[in-house]
Structures are given as structure tokens and as C-alpha cells.
Design a protein that fits this description.
The chain is mainly alpha-helical. It has 24 helices and nine strands.
């Protein structure tokens, strides 16, 4: 808009000037005495001649200047074209590196080096291509060449740091990170983070504090992250000083600052509360734990709060835990801590009212152990105690200190796997994948709706020796007679009772039918011959089969075949034809439990 107004203003000025000259007639007389001639023109015509002369002069100057600069213009045209081709090759090569096309990346890198020469991005493309090809020597040479130029020195140090990490040379990696941080006041983000991680991994806490302050000053991390990491480092220093002589004052100062920076850091709060307890500053210790409990309840905080005063009775601890329970009454850790205090104070009814709803909603080993202790103290019922201990095996896992898949009983400042600071989290660990041949059974799955065991068959994967006492076997009566004929006449009391029950329940018509269908002597003789032929094979199988112990001394040891992993509804698996008997004379299989 402004340019348009200026154009119209200039045009208007020219128009007014021409009109002014036209209204004022005059003559311009030019005499050349040495030529003995002269001419005169009007004032307007003279002005136009002067403007035309100036225009011709400008055109002549442009033509002469163009002829003079023509060699340089031709050279610049070809150089620009060459540079454009080089940058195009550079762009194509970087894209090829990104997609993993090694052949194209090498071709474009060579083309870019030929067209552009020692350009910074050319060196970067060569280094990236060498890394893609797995050639660390060529990549290192390219990054070292970048150190000679101020523009690419930071990029070269970054590349050498990455190559040192890939080789596992942490000393060179730390040197590159330190060189990048010492070069200027404005520390690069990668250098400050890398140096801090390496210092914490090597437990150089003092150096890590300095680097952390630099990173915070350069705004490479937020204020909350700075406060949390500094608190963790101070706690780690206090843990290293723990146990040394005359170090209580230093530990108390470190933990005091750590608790101010991160009130929810459980290890710092617990250690500081213990020191305050030793100093008999119970009020400050209680407030410290209560502040951490409001942020995130934790069992270590509950234990520290319960035993703030040494020598208190269980009723005193219960009274104190009621205060902590009131801060977070709906949290599961509050309920567990309160149940622990009720059990210690022998308040069985209150403990049961807290634990039973949690056991029904989400059963964990901690709840099972508390329930077992409750049943032992309240009812002295060791059967229920064993049941709760058995249920603890298949219950959901409790939270634990976990870092990079590793579970620890105590908190540590760095991860044992990666060396990362503040990696431990209080969470439920990842559970191992269950094996198909080892199913997990709940005790409630072993009973029917009415509470009885019913006709359940358990087939263990392997049973031998003492394991047979805890696992049940179901064997047909005719199988036992074939494997051990010498013990077929003596039956345990449970087998005799079960046989008598089945015989009393059978109708008279069935007995009459069996008597009518009794086979002939020829059929009996053929069946006996078949049994004699199969005795050697059956004896060999019986030697390899595991032995199930008898229930009492009157019972004989019974060896049975190793059961299959799958129970078949038929009397014998498909690969075992069973005893060769006539179908007409074979009685119905009687199944029983050894235990």
C-alpha cells in the first residue's frame, strides 16, 4: 500500500513539473565558438534532452559492465549449478541413510564429496553412511575431521561420544562429554545429561551434584525433576555415610535437605525418622512420616511410624496407627497397617473386619500371612493356618522395589542393570509366564459347591517316592490285579468300603444278568493264555512305574504305571490296549482314590 502511494506521488510530481514548464515558455541557447555554430531550443525540449542523455548513459554503463564481468558470471553460473547438484545429492543421501539404503547412501555420499568438497554436511553424511555400514573406523575418521572446524566441532564430539558408547569405552565417552560441557557456558543438553548419567552410574555423587546444577541452570530439566534427583543423590550420600563414626550430623543434614526437596521419597523419610527417633525428637519424626504418608502410603513408612517410640506397648502402637489410618483411610496400605496393629494388640474381631474384605477382593501373600497369623492367634486353628499359607503361593504378588525387571528387598539409588538414577519404583513386579505342565490350582477349586471333594481325578506330571503321598492316583481294580496279583486279595479299608457300597447299590437284575452271561470254559482258557503271553511285557512296565505308598502298615505298596498328561474317558489310553479279556466277561471298572 505504501509503495503504491509513493508511485502515485512521484507520478503526480512529474505531471505538475511538466505543466509548470509548459506554462512558462523560454529558450535555451547553446553556442560553440570553436565550431562557429549554435542552436537554441525551448525550455521543455531542453529538459527532455537532458533526461534522454542520462538514460543513454545508464544503458551504456550496463552494457560495458556486463561485458567486463562476463567471465565471472559464466564461472558463477557453473559453480552454482555444481553446488545445487551437490546439495541435491546430500539431501538424497541423508534420506537414503534414514530408510537404510546403504548402496544409495554410499553413492550419494561420494557424489556430494566430489561436488561440495569438505562441507560440514558432507562429513556428516559420510559418518552416517559408515555407521549404517557398520564401519566404526570410517565413522570415527569422519567425526575427527569435524573437530578441525569451529562450525562442526560440537557435532564431531557428539559423534565420537556415540561411537565410544558403542565400543563400551566409557572413559573416552566421558572425555567427550566433559569437553562439550567445558567448551562454553551454554552446555549442550546431550552433554550435560550424558555426563550426569555416567557420574551417577559410577557413584560420583559430588560431581553429579555439580552437573545437575549446571543442567538446571541451562534449563535442560524441569524444577521438579531437579529437586527429585538432587534428593536421591543426597539420600545416596547418606546411605554411604551410614555406619561410619561421627557421621550422624552429616547424615542428618543430608537427609533433612532431601526430605525438604522430595517429601515423598520413602528411603530418605524412613532414615531421617530413625535418626530423629534416636535423638528423641518424636514430634518431628511423626510429622515427617505423616507428610510422606499423605503423598504415597508405604509399608516402610507404617513400620517407622509404629515404632517411633522405643518400648511402647502394642496398645500404644495401635493408638498411634489410628492417627496414620485417618490420613488415608481408603488406601490398602492403611488398612494393612491397621490390621497389623490390631493383630499385635490381639484385637481379633477388628483385624478380621479389615482383612476378610481385602482377601475377597484382591488376595496377596501379605494378606494371606496376616490371615494365617489371625487364625492362629484367634482360633488356634492350624488347619486354617495351613490353608492360608497354601493360598499365598498362588495369590497375586505384592508390590516391591522394582527397577528394569529386577526386584530388590531394599531401595537403591541406581538401577543394577542400566545404572540409571532413581530407577526403583514401588510396584507389582512382572509375573513369570506359567508353564503348561504346572497348573496353579486354588484350594477352592478342589471342592464342589456343597463343600465335598466329589469324584475328582488328579493326574500329576511326575510322582515317585515321597511325592506320591501328596498326590492322588486313580487306578482301575483290574489293573491293580494284573500288575501285582499277589496283593490283589488284600485291600485297604477304604477300598473294601467303597466296593461294599457299590455292591449294595447295584440292583438284583444286574447280578442276574451277569450270572446268565457267564462265559464258557473255552473262552476262559483263551483269555488265560492271552494273559500269560502279556505277563513279561507287563512285568517290565511294572518295574518302571512309580510306587504309590500304602496308607497304613496293613496296606501293600502298589506300583502303577506313570499317568499320561491327559486323562482319557476310556478305561485305557489309545496306545495301551489293556488286558486282553473277553468283553462279555469284563466287569465294569471300579475307580477309587488311594487317599
Amino acid at each position: 500500500m505504501i509503495k503504491t502511494l509513493i508511485f502515485f506521488a512521484v507520478l503526480l510530481a512529474i505531471a505538475f513539473g511538466g505543466a509548470w514548464l509548459a506554462d512558462r515558455p523560454g529558450e535555451i541557447i547553446i553556442n560553440w565558438p570553436w565550431l562557429d555554430m549554435g542552436f537554441e531550443v525551448s525550455l521543455l525540449m531542453g529538459f527532455l534532452l537532458i533526461v534522454a542523455a542520462m538514460g543513454v548513459a545508464v544503458v551504456l554503463w550496463i552494457v560495458i559492465r556486463g561485458i567486463w564481468n562476463s567471465p565471472r558470471s559464466v564461472t558463477g553460473f557453473f559453480s552454482s549449478r555444481r553446488r545445487d547438484k551437490g546439495y541435491k545429492a546430500l539431501s538424497t543421501g541423508m534420506i537414503a541413510v534414514g530408510v537404510g539404503d546403504l548402496a544409495l547412501a554410499r553413492k550419494q555420499a561420494a557424489k556430494a564429496r566430489k561436488l561440495l568438497g569438505q562441507e560440514p554436511m558432507t562429513l556428516m553424511l559420510e559418518a552416517q553412511t559408515a555407521q549404517l555400514a557398520g564401519d566404526p573406523t570410517k565413522a570415527r575418521q569422519s567425526f575427527e575431521a569435524m573437530l578441525d572446524t569451529d562450525e562442526t566441532r560440537a557435532l564431531g564430539r557428539r559423534g565420537l561420544y556415540i561411537e565410544a558408547q558403542r565400543r563400551g569405552d566409557m572413559e573416552e565417552a566421558m572425555q567427550m562429554a566433559k569437553a562439550a560441557t567445558d567448551e562454553s557456558k551454554k552446555t549442550p543438553g546431550w552433554a550435560g545429561t550424558a555426563l550426569f548419567d555416567m557420574q551417577t552410574a559410577s557413584r560420583d555423587w559430588q560431581g553429579a551434584l555439580v552437573t545437575l546444577s549446571q543442567n538446571h541452570a541451562n534449563k535442560h530439566l524441569s524444577k521438579d525433576a531437579f529437586r527429585r534427583q538432587r534428593a536421591v543423590i543426597l539420600t545416596a550420600q547418606a546411605m554411604e555415610l551410614d555406619g561410619q563414626e561421627n557421621a550422624d550430623a552429616s547424615i542428618r543434614a543430608l537427609l533433612g535437605e532431601a526430605c525438604k526437596l522430595a517429601p515423598g521419597l520413602v528411603p530418605a523419610v524412613v532414615m531421617h525418622a530413625d535418626l530423629l527417633n534416636d535423638a528423641k525428637d518424636y514430634r518431628k519424626a511423626s510429622k515427617l512420616v505423616e507428610a510422606a504418608w499423605r503423598i504415597e502410603p508405604h509399608p516402610e513408612l507404617a513400620h517407622a511410624y509404629a515404632y517411633i517410640k522405643d518400648g511402647d506397648t502394642a496398645l500404644d502402637r495401635l493408638k498411634r496407627m489410628r492417627v496414620l489410618f485417618g490420613l488415608m483411610p481408603d488406601h490398602i496400605e492403611s488398612k494393612l497397617a491397621m490390621a497389623r496393629a490390631f493383630i499385635d494388640a490381639r484385637e481379633w474381631a477388628e483385624a478380621r473386619s479389615l482383612l476378610e474384605p481385602m482377601a475377597e477382593a484382591h488376595l496377596t501373600p501379605r494378606i494371606c500371612m496376616l490371615m494365617a497369623e489371625l487364625e492362629e492367634g484367634d482360633k488356634n486353628d492350624f488347619g486354617l493356618v495351613r490353608q492360608w499359607l497354601a493360598r499365598a503361593v498362588g495369590a497375586h504378588r505384592d508390590p516391591a522395589w522394582t527397577a528394569d525387571g529386577q526386584v530388590s528387598d531394599v531401595w537403591q539409588p541406581i538401577s543394577p542393570v542400566t545404572g540409571k538414577i532413581d530407577a526403583y519404583e514401588w510396584k507389582v513386579p512382572v509375573r513369570e509366564v506359567a508353564q503348561v505342565d504346572q497348573p496353579v490350582l486354588d484350594s477352592r477349586d478342589l471342592t464342589d459347591e456343597d463343600g465335598s471333594e466329589g469324584d475328582m481325578v488328579l493326574l500329576p506330571a511326575e510322582a515317585s517316592g515321597a511325592e506320591d503321598k501328596a498326590k492322588g492316583f486313580v487306578v482301575a481294580e483290574d489293573e491293580i490285579e494284573e500288575i501285582h496279583p499277589e496283593v490283589s486279595d488284600e485291600k485297604p479299608e477304604e477300598i473294601v468300603a467303597e466296593d461294599a457300597k457299590e455292591v449294595s447299590a447295584a440292583p438284583a437284575e444286574k447280578a442276574e444278568t451277569e450270572r446268565k452271561d457267564k462265559p464258557s470254559a473255552e473262552a476262559i482258557a483263551s483269555a488265560a493264555k492271552a494273559n500269560e503271553d502279556s505277563k513279561p511285557q507287563k512285568a517290565a512296565d511294572a518295574e518302571e512305574a512309580p510306587v504309590a505308598p500304602a496308607k497304613d502298615k496293613a496296606s501293600a505298596r502298589i506300583e502303577i504305571e506313570k499317568p499320561k498328561e491327559v486323562e482319557f474317558p476310556m478305561p485305557f489310553p489309545p496306545d495301551d490296549p489293556g488286558p486282553k479279556k473277553d468283553e462279555a466277561v469284563r466287569k465294569a471298572d471300579k475307580r477309587f482314590k488311594l487317599f
